[in-house]
Design goal:
mainly alpha
Length: 104
């Protein structure tokens, strides 16, 4: 999907046309979206049925379903790396095309 005028890819061209303020808002929104993904992945998974139910009591015991600390760290580091890569893509300088005037 190349633009015929200068040969840049469509998404890169669209992001390149944004001003700095719009790019910063896009990076913040991308980070917020990845944070929600991380919170969804790290939420405790409760089983759908009871475990160790004792009749005539009001307590229910659930199986331990949390992730190990190293798994949590790995997931957050991967999400952080994805955010950083996306931020570099959005905030990098726009390449000029031959014959285009320099930015003012």
């Amino acid at each position: 999907m190349l633009d015929r005028a200068d040969g840049r890819a469509g998404l890169s061209k669209r992001i390149g046309d944004l001003n700095l303020g719009q790019r910063i808002v896009l990076v913040i929104a991308w980070g917020a979206a990845l944070r929600f993904v991380g919170l969804y992945l790290m939420r405790p998974r409760l089983p759908t049925r009871w475990f160790a139910y004792a009749p005539l009591t009001h307590s229910t015991y659930y199986l331990a379903t949390g992730y190990r600390p190293w798994v949590r760290l790995a997931v957050w580091l991967v999400l952080l790396a994805v955010w950083a890569a996306g931020s570099l893509f959005v905030l990098r300088g726009r390449a000029r095309v031959a014959g285009e005037p320099p930015p003012q």
